[in-house]
Amino acid sequence: MNIRKRLIQLTITAVATILAAMAWSFSFGETGFWNQYKLKKQIAHLEFEADSLKKILEIRKLEGERLQKDSFYIESIARTQFGMSKKGEDVYQFIDD
């Protein structure tokens, strides 16, 4: 009878250990719930960043097309960003106090 109790205790201990290991693996393992949660958050962040970069790229493409085709836009950029002027023009710069 004593051997039978010992065998039942060992079986219960083995089953409990296996279940605990499986629960640990499902929760914190490589493909566990916690890791899946972190990966989903990272994917959402990267998708948001990719969308932002796509918008910036589209703006840059439109600006590139304007710089190639729109002479008035080129002139405004030359005047405002680089302080350029046409021959014979006087340029006045106002300095804020």
From TrEMBL:
Keyword tRNA-binding: no
Zinc recorded as keyword: no
GO biological process, one term: FtsZ-dependent cytokinesis
Pfam families, per database record: DivIC (PF04977)
Coiled-coil stretches noted in the UniProt entry, renumbered to this chain: none
Keywords: Cell cycle, Cell division, Cell membrane, Membrane, Transmembrane, Transmembrane helix
A cellular component annotation (GO) from this entry: cell septum
Protein name in UniProt: Cell division protein FtsB
